[in-house]
Amino acid sequence: xxxxxxxxxxxxxxxxxxxLEAMSQPTIGHLDPAFVGFMDELNELLRLxxxxxxxxxxxxxxxxxxGMECCFVNLLEPGDEVVIAVxxxxxxxxxxVARRCGATPIAVEFDWGTPVEPDKMEDALKAHPDAVAMAxxxxxxxxxxxxxxxxxxxxxxxxxxxxxVDAVTSLGGIExxxxxxxxxxxxxxxxxxxxxxxxxxxxxxxxxxxAKLKQRSTPPQSWFLDMNLLTGxxxxxxxxxxHHTAPVNALYALHAALExxxxxxxxxxxxxxxxxxxxxxxxLESIGLDFIVAEEYRLPQLNSVSIPDGIDDAEVRSHLxxxxxxxxxxxxxxxAGKIWRIGLMGASSTxxxxxxxxxxxxxxxxxx
Amino acid sequence: xxxxxxxxxxxxxxxxxxxLEAMSQPTIGHLDPAFVGFMDELNELLRLxxxxxxxxxxxxxxxxxxGMECCFVNLLEPGDEVVIAVxxxxxxxxxxVARRCGATPIAVEFDWGTPVEPDKMEDALKAHPDAVAMAxxxxxxxxxxxxxxxxxxxxxxxxxxxxxVDAVTSLGGIExxxxxxxxxxxxxxxxxxxxxxxxxxxxxxxxxxxAKLKQRSTPPQSWFLDMNLLTGxxxxxxxxxxHHTAPVNALYALHAALExxxxxxxxxxxxxxxxxxxxxxxxLESIGLDFIVAEEYRLPQLNSVSIPDGIDDAEVRSHLxxxxxxxxxxxxxxxAGKIWRIGLMGASSTxxxxxxxxxxxxxxxxxx
Lengths: 368, 368
Known about the structure:
Two copies of one chain form a homodimer.
Chain A: E1 6-8, H1 17-23, H2 33-50, E2 56-60, H3 64-75, E3 81-86, H4 89-100, E4 104-109, H5 118-127, E5 133-137, E6 139-140, E7 145-146, H6 149-158, E8 162-166, E9 185-187, E10 201-205, H7 207-214, H8 227-234, H9 248-264, H10 266-286, E11 302-306, H11 313-324, E12 326-330, E13 339-343, H12 351-363
Parallel strand pairs in A: 1-12, 3-4, 3-5, 5-8, 8-9
Antiparallel strand pairs in A: 2-10, 6-7, 9-10, 11-13, 12-13
Helix pairs in contact in A: 1-9, 2-9, 5-6, 9-10, 10-12, 11-12
């Protein structure tokens, strides 16, 4: 039996009993007529979360990394240029994924902890007039920095590029409006601000993205992630064409998590994340922890703070885990050992979580 | 609320309450130290199911189709020739996946419902001396035919080819010995004879497969399915390198399902599947249903029978679903409307399932 933890890292976040119970309902056949209606409902709930009317809005049957790969393999052909913002781990992963598609990534680098600067992206778009797409991470989970997706997507449109947006940590946690912002392709994850278990990646493709897909001269290199085939499976209603076997129980959980979001209201959920961030922020500052991201660009759902001099990263995290069953996140890559990432995502974004975390940090000797 | 069904199609099969309860345990962080031991246990249980000592034995975080893609993208490089047996839907899918890897598939066709003939495969291997791999489906889920994996893998070795084996419907249901038979790479699914929910694909790579992977001149086209990266994540023990976020709760379920297999004993499970097949077979023959596969090659876990003249496929399946909450499988592709596929997989392989199915068919008017 594994210990029961409170999850305040970069994801997964706490999964409610309601969602776990939904997941443990009896498995039904993925081609059962009764399951068709369920799939339609799930797509509609995802449209609400993404704030979109895109018909092609569905969960990929694999984690967020596969959602990323889905966007790139469908929208890029070998030789295509794609301008990619890199301000943390996940922008870097995009570059790698694009390269493996045979595309030519043009990486635009930013300091970790800072947002993607539109001006620098515009320079890159000007310098690469043949680029077919521009990609960036809305909420950089490795640093806690938020970029301005609305401005960046408008920029992509101005230069006739498709926008590909990583919203893994955004969805359900901060303002995100796929239609209003003109996002062409977006992917997320089930285990962050939606608080479903990890394993699914909601994606949405707009009209322009689907047009590019239809115009391809070669099929996408991945059969499993081929959006034409996925669309026939998810979007075909009663005439659905078999593609793969959907992860039925994981979909039950995602459906329940999205129902919770719908009950709360998407904008109320955004506000809750913002409010609890302010609570946490005041408490962390009171014990002398500084955020690594400038105030304006901080993600409320992922709080990255510098580890004070003289404090041992691993020791504190072990103390939290062993004494409080509390998980917070370590730094990744160049930030390993230098920061903690404290998540207030989905069901983990409550005043009780803030209180527990601050008490536990104090108990571990973190104080001014 | 979705209806509760008895699942006797081509998968998913019935998932026991024990497995569903395991799945609904609280989600833990995928990098939690306590989770490392759990992952190691899971890999060891998979080795038992596969009858292998391969260190690289792990569940891909996506359904069987992704497991297939994982084998092909890792083991084939652009231009590589691969001889692929096609005796049903899934052999055909292999050809498509290989093509999308930039490899050159050499499809060897067999009548649907028949097994892969070693002689014809040997002819193809002789005719294509540069082929680097040979692939086939052990248990063709679209027809119910079993091929002789031991002989086919020996043949691959004779011609210096890696063997890639689809064991989606085999694992836990019929004899399968990865080490004794010299299988180089194999993939399966969680939702067939293991009776876990759909969504995971156990894979195992042998020494030769790993050697080919190390010798690649280009990285695999899929980042998500890159076995080098997956190995660092799954095989690294305490030094595990973050790759993607594992689908924690789905892994709980797979672990519980494998524990059940271990308790029963792998060979006992094979025998149970064989015994219940004989029960079903006698009953089906008594109501005039004929198997489409010759006796010697029948899969005990997937019974394909011809729909008698004058019987309406859809009507019968609706009757079973509406009156008995019982799912059986329809035919795929050229067999649509012509056959039923009756699964006796995992927890669905019991005398009670046999009795229910036969009663329901009789009630639907299927009788001699």
